[in-house]
Amino acid sequence: MLDFNFSFSAEVDNEQEYDLIIIGGGPAGLSAGLYAARYKLKTLLIEKAPVAGGQLTATEWVENYPGFPEPVLGKKLAQDMENQAKFFGLEIVNESVQRVSLSPEIKEIVTNANTWKARTVLIATGSSPRKLGVPGENEFSGRGVSYCATCDGPFYPEKTVAVIGGGNTAFEESLFIAKYAAKIFIIHRREGFSADPIIIERVKANAKIELITNTIVEEIDFGGESRKLKLKNTVTAQQSELPIDGVFVFIGSSPNSEIFKDQIALDGGYIVTDRNHATSTPGVWAAGDAEAKTLRQVATAVGDGALAAYNIHKYLENMEIV
Amino acid sequence: MPILDDKVIGEVKKALQNMKNEVHLVLFTQSFECGYCKETHQLLEELVSTNSLLKLEVHQFESDKEAVDKYGVDKIPAIAIIGEKDYGIRFYGIPAGYEFSSLLSAILMVSTGMVKLGEDTKKFLDKLSKPVHMQVFVTPTCPYCPQAVILAHQMAFYSNNVKADMVEVSEFPHLAQKYQVQGVPRTTINENWYQEGAAPEQMIIAKIEESL
Hints:
The structure holds two protein chains of two kinds. Chain A contains six helices and 21 strands. Chain A is an alpha/beta fold. In chain A, strand 7 and strand 8 (115-123) form a beta hairpin. The mean pLDDT of chain A is 95. The A-B interface holds A 2-8, 10-11, 48-51, 53, 57-58, 75, 94-96, 98, 112-113, 141-146, 148, 150-152, 154-155, 246 and B 3-4, 8, 11-12, 14-15, 18, 39, 43, 94, 96-98, 100-102, 104-105, 108, 116-118, 121, 139, 141-147, 150, 170, 176, 180-184, 186, 196-198, 200-201.
């Protein structure tokens, strides 16, 4: 079945000053945008991709977001969130942010195409897949090493692939890849998995998927006649080779905070916020996966976004009274 | 049965409401040995019905040699996006899924003349004197791919020396093999150079420089 994913925004005037600029159009940014638009704040959301949703767009099924008793397609949920926010007046532009100036009272956001000005900024830039950091990974990225199952799963019909990781993403994406591949090895460095028990059960029931625990990848060797992973057992220290056609890496994420690092406080790259999602810099908030926090889910991101928008609204109100 | 339902048609109308000049969608198709020609043809017919500035022109790939040569088309289905002139913007394979956003974006750009390229990119393209051919390999389910396609198409629109193709890789497995595509988006530049992922303008420009 064919489907069509797209969205477009009205032409936007870059001369004006915004009450709020939101950087990033994943669930946190879209939720904040929805709330801010309903508070009647003059709000602009800057998203680099032509279709908003962030990592949600690369998730096939979402089944732990309340209100959807049947699993909902990630891209459908993302598109609905975007449409809902736009319906209430959120403006979205598709540009990529190059640098920011967050300290002045009027903050500047420079993109590939414009310079935008706002009284407050919400950083909702999310996170990107973390790399393994082993030999061969960069060399074969896009030629057998992948970080996106919905993008690259179709390249492996009836093939054998490895999935690295032990969390929800590794397990859920393995089930997606199993639609194409004949055999999947999930390789995890520990004995136990951090994926939700319900997903672990489903993976264990899938005859195509085999679990390899206490094992780390030492090298991705795709250069020769046959492709293989060089593995090492963390308990016995025994080394082995596993012939495969491709490898998907899902070992967590790292925050997209590089361009802010000299202007707000970070902890291990994650943005430090208070309980109201304010950062260390006045007039700047953060929401979603880029924040230092314990659980990174759609459900937590939309809550972060709503709470941040509420506090930004209060902050702007107080500024006007003074 | 229509490919685009009423809801999508309504959204497409909104998306294209700022079109200014006529845009011709030049389709190359044939009735045999083409996985998605029929669907692509129907998709474009439904698409042009949403806006009077959109025109569809259909050519038979196997018999209409003159048009095939004029537009330099070498596989099907193929769509050339033509405005005041031919900017070298092509879609090979059906622009469905996330690539539908790349198609609408190309139409709007050609119709309005608006490109969102950085000043450094424009300066680089102004000085470019050699031909550059970019092929962006995609799958329809890849949410990061339109960024790479739209950037390549913008460069083609801005510079007479740049041609840019979207290539839906599952319809052209021999090209996946030839260019070693096993992950998307992947942009090949002048055959022998490539860039992985939805890379920023500076990285693509660096690759173009290497390829010259």
